C-alpha cells in the first residue's frame, strides 16, 4: 500500500511527480516575470450578429514569451489559476479591455461593440471581484453596457447564493453576462432560471461536427431552444464553415464567432478588419 509509506515517500521519490512539481514552479515564476514585464497581449476575435454585422469581439489573452514566441492560453491559464496569478492577469485583461472600449467610444463603426472577457472561477470568487469590475469601468470612463463577462458553468457548482448576488449587482450595473462553453460542464439546468444571465455560448465541441454527428446536432438544438425559452441570447463559438452557420441559423442561433468570420486578431489587424466592414446605415 502506497499510503503506508507515508505521503512524503510517495511524492518525494516519484521522479515523474517531482518533475511535474518542478515544471509547475518554473512556469509560475515565468508567469510572474511575464506579468512584471508586461509580456501579455490581447487578441480580439470578431463576433457577428443577425444581419451579418459585427457586434463585438472576444478578448483572448496571449503570452508574448521572450523565448517561445506567442503562447496560447491553454498552455498557461490552468497554471495561472492554480498559482493565483490569474488574479493580476485577469485584472490586466479587464483593464486592457476597458481601455480599448474607451478608445472606441464615440466612433461610429465601433459605437455599439461589446468586448467579452473570460473570467476564471477563482477570479469571480474573489470577494472584491464586483468592485474591481466597477472600478475598471469607472476609471476607463466607459459605459458598462459594452463590457461582457464570459463565466463558466463550474461557477454553478457551489455557493450559488453568492454567485447569483454578484451576478445581480453586475447585471444591474449594465454589464452583460454570458455562460461560456455551455454544455460541457456542470449544468445546473434547474438553477439557470435564477441566474441574471444574458447569453449562453454554445461550446465549439458541439459546433465542430454539428452537420455529421446527430448527438452534437441534438445538443446544439437543445441549447438554442433552452436559451430561447429562458429569454436569453445564444452565440455559437468555433463556427468555421457556412454550412455550420446555416445549420445554426436554421435552428434559431444568429450570433456567431469563428474562423469563418475571423481568427482572433492583434489590435492593429482588428482595426483593419473593422475598416473593411461594409458600412451599415444607422
Ligand atoms: P474560449 O473562451 O472558449 O475561447 C474560444 C477559443 O476558441 C479561443 O481559443 C479561440 O481562438 C478559439 N476559436 C475561435 N474560433 C474558432 C474556430 O473557428 N475554430 C477553432 N478551431 N478554434 C476557434 P484560445 O484563444 O486559444 O483560448 C482558449 C481558452 O483560453 C479560451 O476558450 C478561454 O477559456 C481561455 N482564455 C483565453 N483568454 C483568457 C483570459 O483572458 N482569461 C481567462 N481566464 N481565460 C482565458
Ligand atoms: Mg470565452
Ligand atoms: Mg468559449
Ligand atoms: Mg471554448
TrEMBL record:
<protein>
    <submittedName>
        <fullName>GGDEF domain-containing protein</fullName>
    </submittedName>
</protein>
<feature type="domain" description="EAL">
    <location>
        <begin position="24"/>
        <end position="278"/>
    </location>
</feature>
